[in-house]
Design goal:
By secondary structure, the chain is an alpha/beta fold. It is built from 7 helices and 11 strands. The relative contact order is 0.18. Bound molecules: cytidine-5'-triphosphate (CTP) and the ligand C[C@](O)(CO)[C@H](O)COP(=O)(O)O. It comes from Oryzomonas rubra.
């Protein structure tokens, strides 16, 4: 019997434009540690994760290797590969780099490099769900009333009971997500998350109820929020 392996692809190849900082946002300090290092540390310390594939802008690979991977001694990071124009392209580069290492039924978790507050429990739950269907999507119920707007006018108010906010990780059997990414690439489809590439092919993606603290660090106030959450959980020190 072959043992099942679980890898994480961490896309961190965005430009962080909405943060407006002088350095790329994943290297900004969050309670004394670069954001992306804090994210990787959750996966590094989780026994359910066998390896990590990191994706960064091509010209940041040496910096990231020295100041993140080597500086914090992340032994599970098997490679750092260059990202692409959109998040989807970056994830696909990561999946391609994992191809030789993973069997069709091994599980891959895809997690934003700038969501450092993910809990180990949600990693485990996502992996278990991904083994049983086509995909596991960590999400939280929408708290606000959401409007559909066109040209400044509301055209619909979708029933809030049906609306969830997608987070990451999103977990899949490798063969399923690789095929979905390949099809999207060939058909010129770009989605804003990985689960949507499975959904458009009729696959079954199951919700894993997430945590409102698992925020994506996007704009400056998110740093303040994330530091408050870390202080509240007693995890505000550097590793
Ligand atoms: N071409 C891209 C774009 C995004 N990402 C990654 O996808 C995650 C979510 O993206 P987002 O927070 O929107 O980051 P940016 O694209 O960097 O932000 P902005 O749109 O403000 O430039 C981040 O970890 C980001 O680094 C990526 O790997 N490759
Ligand atoms: C995948 C994601 O985290 C789900 O919320 C998110 O869509 C990625 O952010 P982006 O700003 O759309 O790149």
């Amino acid at each position: 019997m072959t043992t099942s392996r679980t890898f994480a692809v961490i896309p961190a190849a965005g430009m962080g434009k909405r943060m407006g900082a002088s350095i790329n946002k994943q290297y900004l300090q969050l309670a004394g540690m670069p954001i992306v290092a804090r994210t990787i540390s959750v996966f590094e310390n989780a026994p359910c994760i066998d390896g990590i594939l990191l994706v960064t802008p091509a010209d940041e690979i040496p910096y990231c290797r020295e100041h993140v991977v080597d500086a914090y001694g992340f032994r599970k990071v098997v490679d750092i590969v260059p990202g692409g124009k959109e998040r989807q392209n970056s994830v696909m580069n990561g999946l391609r780099a994992l191809q030789g290492r993973m069997g069709e039924h091994d599980v891959v978790l895809i997690h934003d490099g700038v969501r450092p507050l993910i809990s180990p429990e949600l990693l485990q739950e996502s992996i278990a769900v991904a083994r049983a269907c086509d995909g596991a999507l960590v999400a939280v119920p929408a708290k606000d009333t959401i409007k559909t707007v066109r040209d400044g006018f509301v055209i619909a108010t979708p029933d809030r009971e049906t609306l969830w906010q997608a987070q990451t990780p999103q977990a899949f059997r490798f063969g399923v997500i690789y095929a979905a990414h390949l099809a999207a690439e060939q058909e010129g489809f770009t989605g804003t998350d990985d689960a949507s590439l499975i959904e458009r092919r009729g696959g079954a993606v199951r919700i894993v109820r997430g945590d409102y603290r698992n925020i994506k660090i996007t704009t400056p106030e998110d740093i303040v929020l994330a530091e408050a959450f870390l202080a509240g959980s007693g995890q505000n020190g550097a590793l």
